[in-house]
Protein backbone atom coordinates (compact mmCIF):
# COMPACT_ATOMS: atom_id res chain seq x y z
CA UNK A 1 0.00 0.00 0.00
CA UNK A 2 2.76 2.32 0.96
CA UNK A 3 4.68 1.39 -2.17
CA UNK A 4 1.66 2.08 -4.38
CA UNK A 5 1.06 5.45 -2.69
CA UNK A 6 4.67 6.40 -3.11
CA UNK A 7 4.62 5.50 -6.79
CA UNK A 8 1.50 7.54 -7.25
CA UNK A 9 3.11 10.52 -5.54
CA UNK A 10 6.17 10.26 -7.71
CA UNK A 11 4.01 10.13 -10.81
CA UNK A 12 2.13 13.20 -9.68
CA UNK A 13 5.39 15.00 -8.99
CA UNK A 14 6.67 13.95 -12.40
CA UNK A 15 3.49 15.18 -14.06
CA UNK A 16 3.68 18.49 -12.21
CA UNK A 17 7.33 18.83 -13.13
CA UNK A 18 6.55 18.05 -16.74
CA UNK A 19 3.66 20.50 -16.69
CA UNK A 20 5.88 23.22 -15.24
CA UNK A 21 8.58 22.52 -17.81
CA UNK A 22 6.03 22.65 -20.62
CA UNK A 23 4.60 25.88 -19.25
CA UNK A 24 8.09 27.29 -18.94
CA UNK A 25 8.90 26.15 -22.47
CA UNK A 26 5.72 27.68 -23.86
CA UNK A 27 6.37 30.86 -21.96
CA UNK A 28 9.95 30.96 -23.23
CA UNK A 29 8.75 30.41 -26.80
CA UNK A 30 6.14 33.14 -26.33
CA UNK A 31 8.74 35.55 -24.97
CA UNK A 32 11.14 34.60 -27.76
CA UNK A 33 8.45 35.12 -30.40
CA UNK A 34 7.42 38.45 -28.87
CA UNK A 35 11.05 39.55 -28.65
CA UNK A 36 11.62 38.53 -32.27
CA UNK A 37 8.48 40.43 -33.30
CA UNK A 38 9.55 43.52 -31.38
CA UNK A 39 13.04 43.20 -32.87
CA UNK A 40 11.54 43.00 -36.36
CA UNK A 41 9.40 46.08 -35.67
CA UNK A 42 12.35 48.06 -34.31
CA UNK A 43 14.54 46.82 -37.14
CA UNK A 44 11.92 48.00 -39.65
CA UNK A 45 11.75 51.37 -37.90
CA UNK A 46 15.53 51.73 -38.00
CA UNK A 47 15.66 50.66 -41.64
CA UNK A 48 12.86 53.08 -42.61
CA UNK A 49 14.46 55.89 -40.58
CA UNK A 50 17.82 55.22 -42.23
CA UNK A 51 16.19 55.15 -45.67
CA UNK A 52 14.45 58.45 -44.94
CA UNK A 53 17.69 59.97 -43.69
CA UNK A 54 19.52 58.79 -46.79
CA UNK A 55 16.72 60.13 -49.01
CA UNK A 56 16.84 63.53 -47.30
CA UNK A 57 20.63 63.58 -47.55
CA UNK A 58 20.42 62.68 -51.23
CA UNK A 59 17.84 65.42 -51.83
CA UNK A 60 20.02 67.91 -49.94
CA UNK A 61 23.11 67.02 -51.92
CA UNK A 62 21.11 66.96 -55.15
CA UNK A 63 19.78 70.47 -54.45
CA UNK A 64 23.30 71.56 -53.50
CA UNK A 65 24.65 70.22 -56.82
CA UNK A 66 21.77 71.92 -58.71
CA UNK A 67 22.54 75.18 -56.91
CA UNK A 68 26.24 74.90 -57.69
CA UNK A 69 25.44 74.13 -61.34
CA UNK A 70 23.05 77.11 -61.50
CA UNK A 71 25.73 79.38 -59.97
CA UNK A 72 28.35 78.05 -62.40
CA UNK A 73 25.95 78.49 -65.34
CA UNK A 74 25.06 82.03 -64.23
CA UNK A 75 28.74 82.86 -63.75
CA UNK A 76 29.56 81.53 -67.20
CA UNK A 77 26.69 83.51 -68.76
CA UNK A 78 27.77 86.69 -66.97
CA UNK A 79 31.39 86.14 -67.97
CA UNK A 80 30.33 85.62 -71.58
CA UNK A 81 28.13 88.71 -71.44
CA UNK A 82 30.98 90.80 -69.99
CA UNK A 83 33.36 89.48 -72.64
CA UNK A 84 30.88 90.47 -75.36
CA UNK A 85 30.41 93.92 -73.82
CA UNK A 86 34.18 94.38 -73.63
CA UNK A 87 34.54 93.21 -77.22
CA UNK A 88 31.84 95.66 -78.34
CA UNK A 89 33.56 98.45 -76.41
CA UNK A 90 36.84 97.52 -78.11
CA UNK A 91 35.12 97.73 -81.50
CA UNK A 92 33.59 101.10 -80.59
CA UNK A 93 37.04 102.27 -79.48
CA UNK A 94 38.51 101.18 -82.81
CA UNK A 95 35.71 102.94 -84.68
CA UNK A 96 36.18 106.07 -82.57
CA UNK A 97 39.93 106.20 -83.18
CA UNK A 98 39.49 105.39 -86.87
CA UNK A 99 36.83 108.10 -87.30
CA UNK A 100 38.97 110.67 -85.48
CA UNK A 101 41.94 109.91 -87.68
CA UNK A 102 39.83 110.04 -90.82
CA UNK A 103 38.23 113.35 -89.83
CA UNK A 104 41.55 114.95 -88.95
CA UNK A 105 42.91 113.89 -92.34
CA UNK A 106 39.87 115.16 -94.26
CA UNK A 107 39.69 118.48 -92.40
CA UNK A 108 43.30 119.39 -93.19
CA UNK A 109 41.85 120.68 -96.45
CA UNK A 110 41.00 124.32 -95.61
CA UNK A 111 38.19 124.44 -98.16
CA UNK A 112 36.55 121.31 -96.77
CA UNK A 113 37.06 122.63 -93.23
CA UNK A 114 35.41 125.94 -94.13
CA UNK A 115 32.37 124.20 -95.65
CA UNK A 116 32.12 121.92 -92.64
CA UNK A 117 32.30 124.81 -90.14
CA UNK A 118 29.69 126.77 -92.13
CA UNK A 119 27.29 123.83 -92.02
CA UNK A 120 27.85 123.38 -88.28
CA UNK A 121 27.10 127.07 -87.64
CA UNK A 122 23.94 127.03 -89.80
CA UNK A 123 22.69 123.89 -88.11
CA UNK A 124 23.17 125.44 -84.68
CA UNK A 125 21.47 128.69 -85.71
CA UNK A 126 18.41 126.79 -86.91
CA UNK A 127 18.17 125.24 -83.46
CA UNK A 128 18.62 128.53 -81.57
CA UNK A 129 16.64 130.96 -83.82
CA UNK A 130 18.28 133.89 -81.99
CA UNK A 131 19.11 137.37 -83.31
CA UNK A 132 22.64 137.52 -81.90
CA UNK A 133 24.94 134.53 -81.49
CA UNK A 134 28.59 134.16 -80.55
CA UNK A 135 30.71 131.44 -82.12
CA UNK A 136 33.36 129.71 -80.02
CA UNK A 137 36.17 127.69 -81.55
CA UNK A 138 39.79 126.70 -81.04
CA UNK A 139 42.30 129.54 -81.25
CA UNK A 140 43.95 127.87 -84.24
CA UNK A 141 40.60 127.92 -86.09
CA UNK A 142 39.86 131.63 -85.56
CA UNK A 143 40.74 132.65 -89.11
CA UNK A 144 38.75 129.86 -90.75
CA UNK A 145 35.68 130.38 -88.54
CA UNK A 146 35.70 134.15 -89.00
CA UNK A 147 35.64 133.67 -92.77
CA UNK A 148 32.58 131.40 -92.41
CA UNK A 149 30.39 133.80 -90.39
CA UNK A 150 29.04 135.79 -93.31
CA UNK A 151 28.29 132.72 -95.45
CA UNK A 152 26.65 130.97 -92.49
CA UNK A 153 24.42 133.98 -91.71
CA UNK A 154 23.36 134.22 -95.36
CA UNK A 155 22.61 130.50 -95.60
CA UNK A 156 20.66 130.63 -92.34
CA UNK A 157 18.48 133.51 -93.59
CA UNK A 158 17.90 131.69 -96.89
CA UNK A 159 16.76 128.46 -95.21
CA UNK A 160 14.42 130.29 -92.81
CA UNK A 161 12.92 132.23 -95.72
CA UNK A 162 12.47 129.09 -97.82
CA UNK A 163 10.96 127.04 -95.00
CA UNK A 164 8.71 129.64 -93.31
CA UNK A 165 8.46 132.62 -95.64
CA UNK A 166 9.71 134.87 -92.85
CA UNK A 167 12.71 137.14 -93.12
CA UNK A 168 15.09 136.54 -90.23
CA UNK A 169 18.70 137.55 -89.84
CA UNK A 170 21.25 136.70 -87.20
CA UNK A 171 24.27 138.74 -86.15
CA UNK A 172 27.23 136.43 -85.75
CA UNK A 173 30.44 137.27 -83.91
CA UNK A 174 33.55 135.35 -82.95
CA UNK A 175 33.97 134.85 -79.20
CA UNK A 176 37.55 135.92 -78.57
CA UNK A 177 37.48 135.41 -74.80
CA UNK A 178 36.34 131.76 -74.61
CA UNK A 179 38.38 129.27 -76.62
CA UNK A 180 38.00 125.53 -77.08
CA UNK A 181 40.90 123.21 -76.15
CA UNK A 182 43.48 122.28 -78.75
CA UNK A 183 43.59 118.98 -80.64
CA UNK A 184 44.62 115.89 -78.64
CA UNK A 185 48.39 115.56 -78.34
CA UNK A 186 48.64 112.48 -76.16
CA UNK A 187 48.83 114.53 -72.96
CA UNK A 188 46.29 114.47 -70.14
CA UNK A 189 43.66 117.21 -70.06
CA UNK A 190 40.78 118.46 -72.21
CA UNK A 191 41.12 118.40 -75.98
CA UNK A 192 39.00 119.18 -79.02
CA UNK A 193 39.21 117.88 -82.58
CA UNK A 194 37.55 121.02 -83.92
CA UNK A 195 34.09 122.34 -84.69
CA UNK A 196 32.24 125.11 -82.88
CA UNK A 197 30.02 125.96 -79.93
CA UNK A 198 27.28 128.55 -80.38
CA UNK A 199 26.37 130.76 -77.41
CA UNK A 200 23.63 133.33 -76.89
CA UNK A 201 21.82 135.12 -74.07
CA UNK A 202 25.15 136.03 -72.44
CA UNK A 203 26.32 132.44 -72.62
CA UNK A 204 23.27 131.01 -70.83
CA UNK A 205 22.25 129.00 -73.90
CA UNK A 206 24.81 126.99 -75.87
CA UNK A 207 24.79 124.49 -78.71
CA UNK A 208 27.74 122.10 -78.74
CA UNK A 209 28.54 121.33 -82.37
CA UNK A 210 32.13 120.24 -81.88
CA UNK A 211 33.45 117.24 -83.75
CA UNK A 212 33.95 115.45 -80.42
CA UNK A 213 30.32 115.98 -79.47
CA UNK A 214 29.03 114.83 -82.85
CA UNK A 215 31.28 111.79 -82.85
CA UNK A 216 30.15 110.82 -79.35
CA UNK A 217 26.50 111.19 -80.36
CA UNK A 218 26.99 109.15 -83.53
CA UNK A 219 28.71 106.36 -81.60
CA UNK A 220 25.92 106.32 -79.02
CA UNK A 221 23.26 106.16 -81.74
CA UNK A 222 25.21 103.46 -83.56
CA UNK A 223 25.43 101.10 -80.55
CA UNK A 224 22.27 99.12 -81.49
CA UNK A 225 23.64 98.68 -85.01
CA UNK A 226 27.02 97.66 -83.63
CA UNK A 227 25.36 95.10 -81.35
CA UNK A 228 23.38 93.76 -84.30
CA UNK A 229 26.36 93.57 -86.64
CA UNK A 230 28.94 92.60 -84.04
CA UNK A 231 28.70 88.90 -84.74
CA UNK A 232 29.11 89.58 -88.46
CA UNK A 233 32.21 91.77 -88.16
CA UNK A 234 33.83 89.68 -85.44
CA UNK A 235 37.01 88.19 -86.77
CA UNK A 236 36.70 89.97 -90.15
CA UNK A 237 39.77 92.05 -89.41
CA UNK A 238 39.86 95.72 -88.47
CA UNK A 239 37.25 98.44 -88.48
CA UNK A 240 37.97 99.82 -91.96
CA UNK A 241 34.53 98.78 -93.18
CA UNK A 242 33.01 101.30 -90.76
CA UNK A 243 34.84 104.32 -92.15
CA UNK A 244 32.44 105.39 -94.88
CA UNK A 245 29.17 104.86 -92.87
CA UNK A 246 30.51 106.79 -89.89
CA UNK A 247 32.03 109.54 -92.01
CA UNK A 248 28.70 109.93 -93.77
CA UNK A 249 26.76 110.16 -90.51
CA UNK A 250 29.17 112.76 -89.13
CA UNK A 251 28.40 115.22 -91.94
CA UNK A 252 25.92 117.81 -90.61
CA UNK A 253 22.60 118.25 -92.39
CA UNK A 254 20.52 121.42 -92.36
CA UNK A 255 17.61 121.36 -89.95
CA UNK A 256 18.80 118.26 -88.10
CA UNK A 257 19.76 118.49 -84.45
CA UNK A 258 22.87 117.06 -82.98
State the main characteristics.
single chain, 258 residues, alpha+beta, four-stranded mixed sheet, 5 helices, 4 strands, 8% strand, disordered C terminus
| Distinct helical segment count | 5
Strand % is 5-15%
**Radius of gyration using CA atoms only:** 48 Å
Q: How would you write the strand order of the largest sheet?
A: 2-1-3-4
Description:
With 258 residues, the protein is an alpha+beta fold. Helix content is 69%, strand content 8%. The protein contains five helices and four strands; from the N terminus they run ααβαβββαα. Strands 2-1-3-4 form a four-stranded mixed β-sheet. The longest helix has 105 residues, at 2-106. It is rod-shaped and about 165 Å long.
Write the layout of secondary structure elements.
Elements: H1 2-106, H2 110-128, E1 132-136, H3 142-164, E2 171-174, E3 195-200, E4 205-210, H4 211-233, H5 243-250
Short description:
The chain has 258 residues and is of the alpha+beta class.
Amino acid sequence: MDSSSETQNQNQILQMTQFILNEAKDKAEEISAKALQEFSVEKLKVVNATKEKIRHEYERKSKQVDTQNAIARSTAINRSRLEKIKARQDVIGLINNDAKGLLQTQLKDQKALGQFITQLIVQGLLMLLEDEVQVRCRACDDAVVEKCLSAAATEYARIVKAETGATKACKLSLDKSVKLPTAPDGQHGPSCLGGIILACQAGKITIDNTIDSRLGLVLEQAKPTIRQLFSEIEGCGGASSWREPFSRVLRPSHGAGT
